[in-house]
Each structure stands twice: as C-alpha cells, then as structure tokens.
Design brief:
- The chain is of the alpha+beta class.
- The chain has helices at residues 49-64, 106-115, 117-125, 134-144, 146-151, 158-167, 174-177, 191-196, 221-227, 241-249, 302-311, 323-331, 368-393, 410-420, 432-444, 451-455, 468-493; strands at residues 4-10, 14-21, 27-34, 46-47, 72-79, 85-87, 97-98, 154-156, 215-218, 234-236, 239-240, 257-261, 265-271, 281-284, 291-297, 339-341, 358-360, 400-404, 424-427, 460-464.
- A seven-stranded mixed beta sheet has the order 14-15-13-12-18-19-20, with helices on both faces.
- A hairpin with a 3-residue loop joins strand 12 and strand 13 (265-271).
C-alpha cells in the first residue's frame, strides 16, 4: 500500500524530510539533519555539496525510521533559491555551493546598476539582480573563478542537486529558473536576459525546465541503498522553498499572502497579473501563468539565532536553546525600548549589502529581555517594510499564512500581526515547505487533482487578529525605524 508522500526541504542550515498522508496531507514523521556552513572570506557563505547530499540522506533515513519505505508513493523536493551548486559532466561538484546569504557578488550588482542592466532587467525578467542572485553569482564566477565555470557542465539550485543524487537526472522547475534568466511573461529562458547580463556563454549550463509537479526521475538503486527508499519511486521536479511553503500553508489563490520568519524575511502574494517594482521579485509560481510576488531580505528570525548563539552561551546547554526567550521578553515592560535593525546579512534598503545590524538607544538599565524584545520588534518591522510595498500593488484576500521559526512563538506571531496590521494564521505541521514538496509529489502521482485540492489539506491551528493598541504602538515604532535607517544611510554607504 502506497499511502505516504515524502517531501524534502533543504534550507541553508538544516535539511528536513517529512512523510505526509497521501489523502489528508497530515504529517506522519519528520527527520532533520544540520549541514555545516563555512565563511572562508568576508561576505562568503558556502557549504560542501557532498555534505548537503549526506544531510539529505540522514534526514530521509530519520523520517523513515520504523516505516516501510514501500508505502512512499512519490517524492518531492524544495530548497533555498539563488546561489549556485555547480557540477561537472560526471555530475560531481566542481566547488563548494554558494548560498543565498552570500554577498561576494556585490561588485557585480554595482556594475549592473551603474551600466543600467539592473534597470533593464526588471521589465524583462521581473526583478533586479542582488548579490546572491544567479546573474550576480555566475558573473562573479566568470570573473573570479573561470576555471570552475570551465569545469562546470550544469549550474544547479540546491533542490536540483539533491534530486540529482536521488535520480541521476538534471532538471529544474519554473519557480527556480525564474530567479534571473527567464522572461517574466513566457516563464521560459530568455536569450535577451543572458545577453543583458553578459552571460550568453553560460546559457547552455542552465538545467532544463520541467513542471514543479512533473515526474523528473526515479530513485536509483544506489540512492535507494543509501536512503532506505524503494528503488524506482517517482520523484517530481519540486520547487523553490517559498513556493512549496505557500502550498503547504494553503495559500495558492490570487491574493493569498504567506510569510516566512526564517533565515530570510519572506513576504509574498500570489498573483495572476505581472506588476513590476524593484521592491519585489515577480517569480513564476507553481501554476503556469501565475506569479509569486516576493519581497524578501536575509533579515528575519536568523537574528534571534545569532543573538542566542553569540550572547547566550548558557542556552547552548539546554534541551531547547530558545526556551528562555519568551519568558525574558514577557518580563520586559520598559517603554523606552532600544531599536534594533536586523541587517546581519543584508537589508531591503539602500545601500543593501553595506547595511549592518545594531541596537540603537541602549542604556545601562536595559536588560537582556529588553534587547530580545527589541530584536523581535526589529524583525517584525522589516517584515512590515516588505509587506507594505506589496500592499501598494496587490489586493490581499483573507488572513496571511505564517510559518518559520518565529511562527512557533504565539507572542512573536501576535507582535507581527500588530506590526503588519494583518490577521495571521498558523497551520498544523512543523514544516510547511517540506509538506508542500510532498503535496507536489502527490499531484505528480495523481493523488491530488491539482494545487487547489492539495492546498485544501492545510489546517489552521492558531489565529492572530491585530490588536488596535499594538497596531498604534508599532506604527509609531515604524516611524522611528525608518528615521534610523535614513540617518544611517550615509554612514553605511561609506562602509
């Protein structure tokens, strides 16, 4: 009996594997594996591709523990977008993977802006390049590591590297391909985009595009031996993790808003019309002829992880290193709270990669709880910046669906609802990205008729209505936040 679906979500630090029921979409089992990240130089964020594959194997084995793999009807994958996972003609890595938090290509972005290429890219591709986008990263490789590009046959995304390990087949899907080089209207590779970026010679190194729910290969005997999966199990192409999360959260119709408080601040709305602005990216969605307008930055709950890891050494010895946070935030009641700018890895404001994080207005009487509450607010205010931009162009329908590490905290979720002045809902299950990947597998295997039926399996377990007093307070804080960013802009620009 094949009554389960397997979804794999490869984030930038942790890979998750989730088994869901093929009819109800309910999570049955979860496996996780952490993958080390290295920063060998300033701005560089990399990891070993073989270790990424090993993390996938470990996560799958953990999810399958005690479960007959013959029950798995199909497999789907999602992963972080942008960056680069280059492999040679033998399908082996040619260098460490470059992650989406990497900003080494900031000079390439500056060049694209200075020459007008960034401005011209918006109406052609639906977005402007940023430091980790494929256009910038591949231009950096061409300039700084031409030997790596000469050896590379394929320039893959994260989930495509893992599916290659499972099936031996090379492909990507429209949600990932649209990161730099596809025509925003046709959603297919655009020769004009490669020419615009000066990367025409790399066009044939991009993987072929298949539908997100299309069967792209089957588990090989070698992969079956490593993972415990059944050889021959179909594997669908999969999607960018934010698209998979939108499906896993049940937010797939035009106007549906989904947000992720994770490594990145993800704020997105499904649309059936193309509207362009440098403040968001118009990426292909899971349905042909639809788009996901994404306003993002690497500035969300990763700030809390950094704070705890760097400044709270005693927390590392606990079973839950974040257990103390909610209590300390709740105990913080001071009205003169510091202001936190959450730009550890970049910002959605000029000058982008040069912006940095910091606490402003810290006094000797402030406690650690005060700093943590300020951090929560700073992350929420960054989400507000993104969502406010999207609100100007797109009608929102219903409550937003929220996921990510921050969504696990009811207090932080309520603060976010107040800050963005939008009802928010949290759905059942710990891993909506992996769950969405599994639902794509269910569509590919014929277990669901399409996105609408698959999305309907999402179950709301917690809701947050904006509190009028909280909305007023965070509106005032938003003014302070914008003023601080404006004041620091010139200083950042000299960095």
């Amino acid at each position: 009996m094949t009554d389960l679906l397997l979804g794999i979500d490869a984030g930038q630090t942790v890979t998750k594997a989730v088994l869901v029921h093929a009819e109800t979409g309910r999570e049955i089992a979860v496996g996780q594996a952490r993958v080390p990240v290295s920063t060998p130089h300033p701005r560089w964020v990399e990891r070993d591709q073989d270790q990424v594959w090993d993390g996938c194997v470990r996560a799958i084995r953990a999810a399958l523990a005690g479960i007959d793999s013959g029950r798995v009807a199909a497999i789907g994958l999602c992963g972080h977008n942008d960056g680069c996972y280059p492999v040679d003609a033998d399908l082996r890595p040619v260098r460490p993977a470059i992650l989406a938090m990497d900003s080494r290509a900031h000079e390439q972005v500056r060049h694209y802006r200075d020459t007008g290429a960034a401005e011209a890219a918006l109406p052609l591709t639906g977005q402007s390049p940023f430091a980790a986008s494929p256009a910038a990263v591949q231009a950096w490789l061409l300039a700084e590591e031409p030997e790596s590009l000469a050896r590379a046959r394929w320039l893959l995304f994260c989930k495509d590297w893992l599916r290659l390990g499972l099936t031996g087949e090379v492909a990507t899907d429209p949600t990932e391909a649209s990161a730099s080089f596809t025509d925003v209207h046709s959603q297919r590779y655009s020769p004009a985009a490669f020419e615009l970026y000066g990367l025409t010679e790399l066009a044939d190194k991009q993987p072929p595009i298949l539908g997100s729910a299309e069967i792209a290969g089957r588990v090989t005997a070698a992969a079956a031996e490593l993972t415990g999966l059944r050889a021959g199990t179909p594997v669908v192409t999969g999607a960018h993790d934010v698209d998979a999360a939108a499906l896993g959260l049940g937010a797939v119709t035009p106007g549906a808003v989904s947000m992720v408080m994770g490594t990145f601040s993800i704020n997105q709305v499904v649309t059936d019309t193309v509207r362009l602005d440098h403040r968001w990216q118009a990426r292909a969605f899971l349905r042909s002829g639809q788009w996901l307008a994404m306003s993002t930055s690497p500035a969300s709950s990763s700030n809390l992880e950094w704070f705890v890891r760097t400044l709270c050494p005693e927390a590392a010895h606990g079973e839950d290193p974040f257990a103390f946070v909610a209590a300390e935030v709740a105990a913080s009641t001071r009205p003169d709270l510091p202001l936190y700018l959450p730009f550890l890895f970049g910002a959605p404001v000029d000058p982008g990669p040069a912006a940095s994080a910091g606490f402003l207005g810290v006094r000797g009487w402030h406690t650690r709880g005060d700093l943590l509450r300020a951090l929560w607010e700073g992350v929420a205010l960054n989400h507000r910046t993104h969502l406010s931009a999207l609100r100007e162009a797109f009608p929102f329908t219903g409550a937003g669906r929220l996921s990510g590490g921050g969504a696990r905290s009811p207090a932080w979720s309520q603060l976010l609802a107040d800050t963005v002045d939008l009802p928010l809902e949290v759905t059942a299950g710990a891993e909506p990205g992996a769950r969405g990947a599994a639902l794509l597998a269910g569509i590919g295997a014929g277990r669901f008729a399409g996105l609408t039926e698959a999305a309907a399996t999402a179950e709301v377990v917690r809701a947050h209505e904006p509190d009028p007093a909280g909305v007023r307070r965070m509106t005032e804080r938003a003014e302070e936040y914008r003023a601080a960013i404006s004041a620091l802009g010139r200083w950042w620009g000299t960095g």
